[in-house]
Every structure is written in structure tokens, then in C-alpha cells.
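Case study: sn-glycerol-3-phosphate transport system permease protein UgpA.
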Amino acid sequence: MEKRVLFRSVWLPWLLLLPQLVIITVFFFWPAGQALIQSFQMQDAFGMSTEWVGLENFKTLFADPGYIASFKTTALFSALVAVLGISVSLVLAIFADRVIRGALAYKTALLLPYAVAPAVAGVLWMFMFSPSLGVVAYGLRQMGLDWNHMLRSDHAMTLIVVAAVWKQISYNFLFFLAGLQSIPKSLIEAAAIDGASPWRRFWSIQFPLLSPTTFFLLVINVVYAFFDTFAIVDSTTQGGPGRDTSILVYKVYHDGFKAMDLGGSAAQSVVLMVIVVALTIVQFRYVEKKVQY
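Here is what the predicted structure looks like once written out:
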């Protein structure tokens, strides 16, 4: 029997939803509406004069080779962050779920990176990979690799991917660990009695049961790579060398606050928002079909 909560007053549900609706309106819908209006305008650097230009900002945007290159950079970056972040977190969750002694210490240590601010995480990894001072760069030189993310775009991309994945590992790990612990142990024990190897037990039982968690984290990690990695890029490479690590969210900031192209920056933010919404819809429309609930 399906249970439903019935309110005596028609206004009570809306009253309970009011705080969340206010937060969403003030911090999402209002800024999104402002950006949409501004994307059809041309403003001076101080916002003293405004001219309605229609779709001119979007036409200029898609005619810019640098913006198209930023698309490719963002696609590569988000794919690497999502795949590596989910894979590494799943492996760590599997190992942590099997630990008997000191399990709490291991789990606490793996959760600590989530408490670090993105800018701090970026600075931390920038120092470790610094060509002149970094311990990681020194170790790479000892192995014959001349590391320099300030001059080589592939090194710079590796740096921001590592920093972004490290920052997101704790979030993914927490959900995977909870998912693993919710799987009935009787299923694993029955498979072990039937002679299934640990790999077979994981691939045939645990991983299919983790598919809802994996799908949820896929959506979250894609959104994270598109929006929440600005501080990491800004504190490590600042979009360099050249513009080779200038992902879309960083280009919005650079063009709006450094190049003072307010209309073009607003148009970029609208395009970025549409891309993320479209990717989310595609994931829910097609990827979710393979999820076993």
C-alpha cells in the first residue's frame, strides 16, 4: 500500500518549501536570468552604457577559434576527471570496506581532502609539482622526466586533472563505501561458497548493485568538472601555458573580469549552463537505462 502525507492546509506544503524556493530563486534563477539578459547586451567596462545587440555576442563567440579550443579542452578535462575520480574512489572504497584493523583511521584519512578548499588544493599540488621546488617534480626528474607544467600543455593538463581528482575523491569514496556496506553480505558469502573468485564476485554482484551510485556520481562529477574546478585552474595554471588549460568556466572569468567583455562573458555562461543541462538530460535519458535499481 502506498502511503501519502495529507496536509489539512493547502498553503502548508508551500510554506515548508518556501526557504528552499527562496534560496534557489536568489542564488540560481535570478543570476541565471541576469546572465541571460546580459548576453544580449553590449556594455562598457564600468557598466555605464548598455546597448542591445541581440545574438551578436553568440555569433562572435562561436566564430572565435579560442572558444572552440576551450570546448575541446573542457571535454577532455571533464572526461578524465569523471573517469579517474570514479575509478580511483571505487578501488579505495573496496579496500577500505575489507579493512578490519584501523578501519576508522583509514576512512577518516580518505575523507580529509574533501575538507580542503579548492584553491588550497590547487596551491598544494602546484607546489608539489613546482619545477624548481616541488618534491614530485624532483622525483620525476630522477626518473628521467623533465617536468615543467609552465611550458608544456600536457604537463599542465595532468596537474589540474590530478588536483581536481584528488579534491573529489573523498566525495566519491563516501558514496561508494556506503553503497558497498548496504549490499547484503549473504550474497557475497553465497557466491564465495559457490567458488566465485573475488573479481567474479565484484563484477557479477557488487558492481551491478552499485550502478545507481555510479550513475549518480557520474552526473555529479561531470557537473563538478564543468563548474567547481575554477579555483583549481586559477591557482595552478591560470589557464596556461597560453590558453591550453583554459576550460570553459575559467574562460568565462577571464573574458569577463580580465578582458572586461561583459556581454561575451555572459553569453559564455549561458552556453555553459545549456551544455551542462543537456549533458545531464542525456545521461538521465540514455545512461540511466543501464542502471539496475
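For the exam, be able to explain this: The first strand starts at residue 41 and ends at 43.
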